Amino acid sequence: MDEVLKELEHYLSKDIPYSRVLSSMCTNPHPIAVKAHCMFLRTNLGDPGLFPGTFELEKKVLSILGNFFGCESAVGYISTGGTESNIQAIRAARNVWKKSNRGNIIVPESAHFSFDKIGDLLGIEVRKAKLDEEYKADLSDVERLVDDETFAIVGIAGTTELGQVDDIKSLSKIALEKGIFLHVDAAFGGFVLPFIGKKDFDFRVKGVSSLAVDPHKMGLATIPAGVIMFREESYLSSLCVETPYLTSSRQYTLTGTRPGTGAASIYAVLKYLGFDGLKKVVLECMRITKMLKEEVEAIGLEPVIEPVTNVVCFKCKAFRLRELLLREGWFVSAINRPEAIRCVIMPHVTEDIALDFVSSLKKTLSFI
Ligand code: 0PR
Fold first, then answer.
1. Do 210 and 187 touch, CB atoms closer than 8 A?
2. Of the chain's two ends, which shows fewer C-beta atoms within 10 Å, N or C?
3. Are residues 114 and 130 in the same domain?
4. To the nearest whole percent, how much of the chain has pLDDT over 70?
5. Nearest-angstrom CA–CA distance, 85 and 212
6. Predicted model pTM
7. Which residues contact ligand 1 via a Cβ below 6 A?
8. Are residues 251 and 183 located together in one domain of the fold?
């Protein structure tokens, strides 16, 4: 046994420690989440009748989060993350509209690439709306793209590249006027925005039909842990297939066998830290984001936008700079439009790490 574990340790030790990573939306899970995860390793919510306790826990998490995001009666389940949640939201919207491989959805150009996968999987057209000067979905372009075959609009609350938040209220107005489903992808922003006083992205906005949030990003839960929530039960039931030989007769999830570890780790964080504890974590990330922005501005790089969440991008020759920073051991992302380096200030990015990064950046900039 020791031999095998030693070999595994060898592979694990090749992975990059988060302390050098500014490109990820994942982070070290909270220790209580790790403990909870390990306790639930044998569970399979794919056959909930065999795991009634874990199933009850999943329902409890959904109820806590439904309340937190402004809809007590929201229904849904714990998914593998934002990609699955987005797939299921759009699949439900399509199923309620018409069960066919037709129709189109409108997403902003800033949408995560999971929407390209959705277009391919469902055989639908994914129309991309332009962004305005603040890199939010351009509302007039969204309206222009809507036609008789449009069955869903998507708004992003915390975009992958810039952390920007679309005007969900205005998107909701368009969706309600046209009688179209509105999905909000808050995979990243869901556990950031409520803690910095922004609540106009969730079910409190009348036209929002579904919401994706990822506890395995800023919720400090273990991977995989995403949540998909629907305002109305009919959307969830539109996803059902019959499962005659299981303990339940119908299944609405995308995967069959699925872990109960997400339910356990999210619940543990919510009980142990609570929303107040999570708020403290977010406020510290925001403080360091602001500090990083000021320090990097002082060495001559301009931010693409004033950071809205704990993501900050700086205009530069990003692809070259990314390579040079990598030689110094730093992982940052490069984005294209506009060309910029992107830093995500997750909870593992402490003030010391951020300042250490700034000095490497300063040194690196002198080479280009
Ligand atoms: N929606 C948004 C707004 C996202 O930012 C992401 C992921 C997703 C959906 C998809 O979520 P899952 O990856 O959980 O299915 N955004 C980052 C990305 O894939 C996440 C990430 C995480 C990137 C870790 C890098 C990394 O090292 O681009």
1. no
2. N
3. yes
4. 100
5. 6
6. 0.98
7. 23-26, 81-83, 86, 112, 114, 156, 158, 160, 185, 187-188, 214, 226
8. yes
Q: Write down the pLDDT at residue 136.
A: 98
Indicate if 9 and 77 belong to the same structural domain: no
Best mutation site among 18, 24, 160 for ligand 1, i.e. most ligand atoms within 8 A of its Cβ? 160
Ligand 1, atom 4: closest residue by C-alpha:
160
Shared domain check, 158 and 263:
yes
Does 174 lie in the same domain as 97? yes
Q: Ligand 1 mean position to 206 CA, how many Å?
A: 27
Domain with 11, as residue range(s), is 2-28+274-365
Q: Which of 366, 361, 367 is nearest to 314 (CA)?
A: 361
- Centre of ligand 1 to C-alpha 82, Å, is 7
Query: What is the number of the ligand 1 atom nearest to the C-alpha of 21?
Result: 27
What would the mean pLDDT of 296-321 be, rounded to a whole number? 97
Smallest CA-to-CA distance from 145 within 117, 109, 113 is with 109
Whole-number Å distance between alpha carbons of 287 and 137? 27
- Write the CATH number for 146: 3.40.640.10
The predicted model gives 174-179 an average pLDDT of 97
Domain count, the chain: 2
pLDDT at position 240, please?
A: 97
Residue whose Cα lies nearest atom 24 of ligand 1: it is 24
Residues 327 and 187 in one domain: no
Using most ligand atoms within 8 A of CB, pick from 162, 214, 335 the residue to mutate for ligand 1.
214
Final residue before a domain boundary, out of 238, 272, 306: 272
> Within this chain, do residues 58 and 11 fall inside the same structural domain, yes or no?
no
